[in-house]
Design a protein that fits this description.
Blueprint (H helix, E strand, L loop, with lengths): L2 E5 L6 H9 L3 E5 L13 E3 L10 H9 L3 E3 L6 H11 L6 H7 L2 H10 L7 E4 L2 H7 L7 E5 L9 E3 L2 H13 L6 E5 L4 E10 L2 E13 L5 E8 L5 H15 L4 E10 L2 E8 L7 H9 L3 H9 L7 H6 L12 E7 L1 E4 L6 H5 L5 E6 L6 E2 L10 E7 L2 H19 L2 E2 L12
Parallel strand pairs: 1-2, 1-4, 2-3
Antiparallel strand pairs: 5-8, 6-7, 6-8, 9-10, 9-12, 10-11, 11-14, 12-13, 14-18, 15-17, 15-19, 16-18
Helix pairs in contact: 2-3, 3-4, 5-8, 6-7
Length: 418
């Protein structure tokens, strides 16, 4: 059997293992760090530290020599996987792209050099850098760790004094103890998923994104649609991005701010998006980026929308839908009990999945990143407004029965990833 080595995973990635099993791959998982555990879904498991900077490169390299491809599902392991792939002669994103993936400051420098829109920004290694950024006075800005993920430690600040107060928190969430501060970009937020082959995007899908503050940028909703007016613009953006970072073959998950015709990069990773993005993208397009990731890793041509349809691999009509969405629960309080999903789902036909992410007796606090969210509900259907209303109802039920003070719902935003 073709063997795929997976170095590092992360939360909500179970579908990847199901997709790879369906492809007939034998999966070797090397991950002794992720809080989400997938040992039971792999054919072989090795409890190695997979993280960049602390991984046992010799041990990972020996594993890779026994496999036909190597991938990661974790931001923290993109450099490790690229280096090992190069060492053993397997396909990979390459060390330059992996280095860019782990550094928001390098991403901005490369995009700036390529003539792409980049807001005024500065690398922060100490208070002096913050003082220079705010030398001309207060301004709406964002302070974020240069090498973290999942919105951890991403905070909105308006003055030097405010940024200086938040600096210890942001610094503590960066492995390199480095941050980026930049002008806040107006506009709507989207995620772009792309499959890149030979330096060209061969599949692109746009996801609507809703975040909640007031200080942080926690993702509270992601929306998907089969028809995407932004797709052509997103394809042009991805083409420029991969040229800027030097990516020839791989998967791109890019988070962007869009204002009119202007697209600005928030951050990018060269692996499939998390938060069930790959699952729900497949639901509305028939293309699974987990499948394409494995295909590229073992040297095959990736499945795209056109090749999936030609091969009959698109999602069956009974399982696909024109719209899909996931909403996340944020709140505070001591979790009172486990809430049976059937009780939450009653009378909500478009809501298919509900999950409580904190157990009874645990305390939920105001989240400073996506990892602090208390649960989620996901679904799909033909009416995006009805779907969104049902998901909100599901989370109100879930949070209320958990015993949480549920944070107030914000304006609905983009239902259809327009």
């Amino acid at each position: 059997m073709t063997k795929l080595l997976v170095v590092g995973a992360g939360p909500m990635r179970s579908a990847a293992f199901a997709v790879w099993r369906g492809m007939g791959l034998s999966v070797v998982l090397a991950d002794g760090y992720s809080a989400a555990r997938y040992e039971h879904l792999a054919d072989e498991f090795v409890p190695l530290d997979p993280r960049d900077g602390s991984a046992d490169l010799k041990a990972v390299t020996e594993l890779a020599r026994q496999c036909d491809g190597i991938v990661t599902l974790s931001d923290d392991s993109q450099g490790t996987v690229a280096a090992v792939a190069e060492a053993v002669g397997l396909p990979g994103i390459g060390s330059p792209a992996a280095t860019a993936a782990r550094s928001k400051s390098l991403q901005r420098a490369l995009c700036e050099r390529a003539g792409m829109f980049v807001p005024r920004w500065r690398t922060v290694r100490g208070p002096g850098d913050l003082k220079e950024f705010f030398a001309d006075g207060g301004r709406a800005a964002v302070l974020k760790p240069v090498d973290s993920a999942g919105s951890a430690g991403v905070l909105r600040v308006g003055t030097y004094e405010e940024a200086l107060r938040q600096w210890p928190v942001v610094r503590s969430l960066s492995p390199s103890r480095t941050a980026v501060v930049e002008d806040f970009i107006e506009g709507r937020e989207v995620c772009v998923e792309a499959v890149v082959s030979g330096g060209e995007p061969v599949f692109v899908s746009v996801t609507g994104k809703e975040v909640r503050g007031p200080l942080g940028f926690v993702v509270v909703s992601l929306s998907f649609a089969a028809e995407q007016p932004d797709r052509a613009a997103a394809e042009r953006f991805i083409r420029r991005l991969v040229a800027a970072v030097g990516l020839s073959d791989g998967i791109v998950h890019a988070e962007c701010k869009v204002e009119g015709a202007r697209w600005g990069l928030v951050e990018a990773g060269f692996r499939p998006g998390g938060d069930l993005i790959a699952d729900l993208t497949a639901r509305v397009t028939g293309v699974h980026t987990y499948r394409a990731l494995a295909q590229i890793a073992v040297g095959d041509k990736p499945t795209t929308a056109s090749t999936a349809a030609a091969a009959g691999a698109a999602a069956p009509s009974a399982l696909s839908a024109p719209f899909a969405q996931i909403r996340f629960l944020t709140g505070e309080g001591l979790v009172r009990q486990f809430v049976p999903p059937a009780r939450v789902l009653e009378g909500l036909p478009d809501v298919r999945v509900v999950n409580q992410m904190f157990a009874a007796g645990q305390r939920v606090r105001h989240p400073l990143g996506n990892s602090g969210r208390a649960g989620y509900a996901a679904g799909w259907g033909t009416d995006p407004a009805a779907l969104d209303e049902q998901l909100r109802c599901a989370l109100d039920r879930l949070g209320g029965e958990m015993g949480l003070a549920v944070h107030g719902a914000e304006a609905a935003g983009n239902h259809a990833a327009a």
